[in-house]
Amino acid sequence: MKVKNIVEGLVWESLERVLDTKPDACKCDKCQADIVASALNHLPPKYVVTEMGETIARAGGLDHRVRTAVLVALAEAVELVTSRPRHE
Ligand SMILES: [Zn+2]
Questions:
Q1: What is the pTM of this model?
Q2: Is 58 among the domain residues?
């Protein structure tokens, strides 16, 4: 059994979609990780106890408001990281 923040999975899933709408954003691994970390710092975590395979089903049942909050937090995080990228 593991404890997992399902919001984190949702942020990673949504990242590509948000980056597609931001052509100026850097898409290197470091910036993507910075974007995810920044977004997660602005989102309330939602922890579940999981066994293998169970996580995706639970994430699918996430509240619509949580999904919207994830997209908003990601869009803001992209702006932040794009204005101050930490890559070499
Ligand atoms: Zn970068």
A1: 0.84
A2: yes
Q: Is 27 a member of any domain? A: yes
Q: Please report which helix (H) or strand (E) contains residue 47, including its range.
A: strand 47-50
Six-digit token string for 57: 């089903």
H-helix or E-strand spanning residue 70: helix 64-83
What confidence score (pLDDT) does residue 3 get? 86
Within-domain flag for 88: no
- Distance between Cα 46 and ligand 1 center (Å): 28
Q: How far is the CA of 27 from the centre of ligand 1 (A)?
A: 6
pLDDT per position as a tens digit, 53-82: 565 555 555 778 889 999 999 999 999 999
Structural domain including 52 reads 2-83
Give residue 85 CA to ligand 1 midpoint distance, Å: 6
